[in-house]
Amino acid sequence: MGSCIIVGGGIAGLFASILASEKFDSVTLIEGSEKCGGLLKSWKNKQQISFDFGTHILSETANDEMNAILFKGIYEHPELWNSFDVTKVSNSFSGKIYDEAQFIALHHLTEVDYKLALSELLLAPGRSLDEAKNLYEYAVDNYGPIITNKIFRPLFQKMQQAELEELHPNVHIIFAFNRFILSDTTLSKALKKIDKFDSKLAFSSYYDGLSGAKKFYPKERGIELWVEHLCEQAKEKGVEIRLNTQVAKINSDNNHVTQVVLSNGEELNCSQLIWTIPAIFAIRAAGVDYKSSVKPEFCPMSLHHLVFDSPFLDKNYYSNINEFDCDGFRITLYPNILDKKKSNLHHCTVEVLHSELSGNALSAKLADELKALGYVEKNAQLVQSDEIKVPMGFPKFTNEFVNEKVRQVDLLNDSFKNMTLLGKASKTEFFVYGILQETFDAIKKLAHYE
Ligand SMILES: Cc1cc2nc3c(=O)[nH]c(=O)nc-3n(C[C@H](O)[C@H](O)[C@H](O)COP(=O)(O)OP(=O)(O)OC[C@H]3O[C@@H](n4cnc5c(N)ncnc54)[C@H](O)[C@@H]3O)c2cc1C
């Protein structure tokens, strides 16, 4: 069925290339950098210790066909992978770590606020995402004023440098602020049987409500091992991977993309174009008439890869730092997910979305925060720190940003009948599993892939 060109060799592009290879005569994957993987690449410090860009613990999906492709390398090489039944996550809020769930424990509020927050949450009138103009409207009608003003507002000021009134109503889901834990686990379990409370309350432990899906992380190194498995599979399926090149121009005829011209001048004919990098680059390469009304803003994100001289006190795989006055927002604790027999390192990655500081000064502040919160022993020494800046990592999910993204994708869909926009060009998805499901559904539909 002709030739398929896929732009962007992140997880979306790689998965798309394997799926597309079942249907198209030829599939070419165009990756701008020297390696595939995008945000799933790993990074090594000068002692050759591996770190990831954020937390990436894999989980089987509910779809066997997707699992067979995504985890083929893992099923074939179990000796290289740790496998878990539970993703162990903690979170800290109000200066205390809740060590069996990623969601905020409401009872970490003061007793007065907790009682008020609970009654407001139970009595909240409710409002759908479509009916809410912004996150404030959604939050106050679904969770009540205490949670909105004492949790959502300061946390979003920290995470997004924005007020709730500017943000898109569903952005709280991205940060796992959609559910809360109650001190009374029996009450919580009973309430979770009622739909309108189930979506707002979390199980008090990650051992409750398990799906049976296996979770994976490499025994050694980092998540890039998964990318290597997928690249191998793509090559076995005949996908041609072109590295260090970009699409300079998109040629079309009668609302169909016919050819892409690469940055080295090479022309590749194509019957289907799959675009997984931001839609604006396709608009520019195709010369589509478009005026942007908004400039997307990104959080000035940085990752701090830290090595301590003593073990972590939290035994979870990662933890969300929901503290208003801390710069870190998540910590990945590698010793807890790597093979203990093969690693005696005490290394972690702390993600920061915004800080007045940078470099060593910020790493030192983060180390102090981790000690104060109880992730690291008080007398532990920070023996190595590296900062990686990710300037375009996390967007500010304002209404304008989300609406503009939709406008760009709609414009391209109207302009070209054979262009599919996925991954970074997705209208709605941001996280890996949303992206993978959307990619699977789109290519299956596109190519009548049965
Ligand atoms: C710090 C951070 C933490 C995250 N944590 C999580 C998490 O905990 N859980 C989760 O599910 N998701 C997380 N995400 C989101 C997740 O990483 C992304 O959803 C996912 O990796 C996106 O995959 P992608 O293929 O769409 O894009 P990317 O991974 O960005 O890949 C795009 C690829 O396209 C290439 N490219 C770019 N421009 C061009 C060009 N002009 N021509 C050719 N190639 C080009 C890039 O080099 C890259 O390889 C996180 C994101 C960030 C930034």
UniProtKB/TrEMBL annotation:
Molecular functions per Gene Ontology: oxidoreductase activity
Pfam family, one: Amino_oxidase
Transmembrane segment boundaries: none
SUPFAM superfamilies membership: FAD/NAD(P)-binding domain
Coiled-coil annotated residue ranges, if any: none
Amine oxidase domain location: 12-279
Family: Belongs to the carotenoid/retinoid oxidoreductase family.
Protein name: Amine oxidase domain-containing protein
Taxonomy of the source species: Bacteria, Pseudomonadati, Pseudomonadota, Gammaproteobacteria, Alteromonadales
